[in-house]
Amino acid sequence: MAEESTEALPSVEELMQRIAEHYEALPRQLKNVASYIEQNRTSVMMDRTSDIAASCGVHPSAVVRFAQRFGFSGFSDLQAVFRQAYAGQSASTTSYQQRIRKLIDDKPGALSGGSVAREFIAACRDGLDELDANLDDAQFDAAVKMLQKADNIYVIGVRRSFPVASYIVYALQHTAKRVHLVSGFGGMYREQIRSVRKGDVVIAISFAPYGKETQHCLRVAHHQQAKTLVITDSQLSPLARYATTQLYVKEGSAFAFRSLTSTICLCQALFIALAYKLELNVEESTDSGGYDD
């Protein structure tokens, strides 16, 4: 593909769709490379093969083999897909993230509390910008319609995703929908999800490394012919195979911590959109019995 013009290159989405379709058949080392590319779309165009290999725990030749597996003569040709997609766009996000990493490496422990806060706020802002740029309107609308028709809504999210799951349940309980939080209290994930049936919807929120409990609940939902809304970070997520509808969120991160800002924003948008579909009054309540939103 080295001789191809940029017009002949696939789009990033087309390439990632091809990778997702063939992901399960890839050898383990190439799966690692695929996951890296999915998680680092904005930087992969500039990453060195050796650095990618080190991050994936593979030999650099595996990175080249991955590119060849998808019809490229070498990895630089695959990177050209991402360079084409981001041509003309500002590189400020990537360079800013690189400056953060360098600052941390050069001056560990030297940042003030206010500096830490601003770095994290900037990371959250980057995540929201990416959500805005990459939101799939068709999938979002399909998710809202699915929730509108649901008999029951079950919500599952563990560990870092648990606050998001709790929020969705809190918000949806202001509709007439029957909403169930699969909390797993007492270790009872299986017991709490086993009543799901056809006509119900399961909302599953999970990000790498993906909760096993969430995956179990999705398998049950799939077996029971319930519909599923998956909120995750990658087309290569093991949750994606069970999704009726899926929404992708790439959170900003700083100091090795990923935020929840974009995920919460997406879920609030889901609730508001559903509320309008259900013709609810979504104005803030001003009496003492109103809820704190």
What does it look like?
32% of the residues are buried. The protein is α/β, with parallel strands linked by helices. The chain has helices spanning 12-22, 28-39, 49-56, 60-69, 75-86, 92-106, 113-134, 137-149, 162-172, 189-193, 212-223, 261-277, and strands at residues 152-157, 178-181, 201-205, 227-232, 245-248, 253-254, 257-258. It has two domains: 6-86, Orthogonal Bundle (Arc Repressor Mutant, subunit A); 91-293, Rossmann fold, CATH 3.40.50.10490. The protein has twelve helices and seven strands. Helix 8 crosses helix 12 and helix 9 (162-172) packs parallel to helix 12.
Give the tags.
five-stranded parallel beta sheet, 10% strand, Arc Repressor Mutant, subunit A, 293 residues, 2 domains, two-stranded antiparallel sheet, disordered N terminus, alpha/beta, Rossmann fold
Outline:
The protein folds into two domains: 6-86, Winged helix-like DNA-binding domain superfamily/Winged helix DNA-binding domain (Arc Repressor Mutant, subunit A, Orthogonal Bundle); 91-293, Rossmann fold (3-Layer(aba) Sandwich).
